[in-house]
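Following up on my earlier thread - several people asked me to post the actual chain instead of describing it. Fair enough. Here it is, all 484 residues.
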Amino acid sequence: MQQSAASVTAWSPPPGSQNLSLFDVLAWPQAASVGTAASSTASRHTDALDYSTDLPDRPGQFEVGDWLLSRCAADVDDKVRTKWVTDALCRPEGTDEVKKALRVQNAKILKWVLRGCHNEAEHVWRISTLQFCCLIVQKALEVADRTLGNFQPLRDVAGYEEDRDPKDPNREPRDAKVLIVSVFHNRVKEACEHKWAHFVVEQCIKFMPREKTWFILQYMAEQTFAVAAAANMCAYNVLMRLIEHHGEGADVGGHLNTIVEQLIARDVATQRPQNHDPHQRFVNNPWANFVFKNLLEYGVQWQTRVVDEVLLVDTSDLAQLRCASMTLTSALALDQNFPSGRANVEKIIDKLCGREDCSEHARSHAATWLASIKNSKYGSFIYKQLKKACEDSSRVFPTLPTESQSKDTRQSHKNQKIAKPQPKLQPKAKPKAKPKVKAKGSEGRAGGGEKGRGKSESKIELASSAASSMVEASLRRTTSAMSS
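Reply from S.P.:
Thanks for posting it. Predicted structure:
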């Protein structure tokens, strides 16, 4: 629903809020659901309080510009206050009255960005290096365009041409975006490596014409800053934006070609035999590998050089490295509808499948190697993309050996090596069994020793003789009684 500028007022606390507790203030937005006369007022205050961490000095919808002009950068460098400004700095949309109010507000915000309380260059650089204020500069680059209209306050923001007569009616106003970009002319290295300012430089490359950002390319090419930028966690983003923005156009001055040559030469210097550790390859750098990926995607004229001089050297080692494997995966995923892309993908397929040497031994070795990386941590991605690339290019994917065949192959490779003669080992002599030691008192226990068994047998004989004598006595008494 569109609303006019006159119907929107600055936010004010609810009636009687001076005597309200914290619980009452937090519960105030719920009053909008109550069917009372105050429900419309409560809903208006609820719309104003649309941030969970709102601050008491929040301006109204069309008062952000006036509020910002009375603040310095340190006061605005806050997550909530910065969001107020970035939300207010937008392209004019809606009714004519709303568009007019938004243009005036945009002009005031751009005036604060360009001038502030210092000169233009120092203030733009200062807020570009702050964590939250740099978001305002990025949004200003998107909105600060003279095509927003011929509204006079917006045209007067950046001033007019200084080399023209002020009374000249044909004098054109300066572009606010050009003034923001000009701040970085003498600060290219510092801005690219800065934690927050590099985001502003990226937006400059994105929204400005190519001829306005050539000075960044020129600095990287002439000062040999490209290699250091590719290995920097902030500057590599700027280099990627330059490749995306300038890669498809005319390379005026040959600066971009010089940068590509510097990057390739740096990787060649880290290859064998100069360096025997594949982890030290420049293409395996955690930031530079993204730059090489952008060269493959946006620099069509440099695809073949990157593939031939970087990726086809020690390819089997690169496929098992964390960062270099990502670049190799991107190379296998190149668009094969173009001749250059199809030719480069086929080169990598032949290299990984062992078809360069045209020998049976190389193909069997490549199949065994593919079977070994199939389930590895980083090589599994190469295996999947290689299989897909073979299907797209109508190439035959190598038949992987079974587990028993791979064991036989590994054993044959071991047998081919010259084994050192090892002396025969003498069988170890068995240790003599220790004699068992009888426990004390074992001879007196039943069943333990000859003496114990003799005593038990004598007791049994005495018991049997006593029983037989008792039987004979009872028989004599019975016979004597019967005779009497």
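Confidence is low (pLDDT under 50) at residues 1-53, 416-420, 442-448. That should answer part of your original question.
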